[in-house]
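User: Can you predict the 3D structure for this chain?
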Amino acid sequence: MKQLFTLMFSLLFSTGLIHGQEPINEEKLEFKKLEQLTNSTYKLYHTSNEMGKWVYLKLNTANGMLTQLVIDEKNNLSYENNINTLPLVEKSNQINDRFVLKSTPNNYTFILLDQINGRMWKVYWSLETEEREIISIP
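Assistant: Here is the predicted structure, written as structure tokens:
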């Protein structure tokens, strides 16, 4: 009897009935693969929920250009604002994953790093145009 119970328990456990596992969803697997891409031109960085608006920073990893993506669920709006409008390197020196953003303790400030030459910039994002800027760190 004990062997029968052990066999039944093993079958239930291995089929996932005890844990309530769902069948594998191929679309979810494909999305996870896309999320983990390396050598990508663009990356999104989450900042915060500002006055009911989700704000992300979109970085062009090849040239250092940044935009701010705002998703306003309350008013059903999405829009992008430029943070810097000029590339930080010449076209001939642009390669994917050259630039990365690093968060700081201040939610409105990030550090932009050129991983090839070590140059850095402070990036300030804001919903207010006059408060958005990128400043070179000497």
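The first strand starts at residue 42 and ends at 50. Confidence is low (pLDDT under 50) at residues 11-21.
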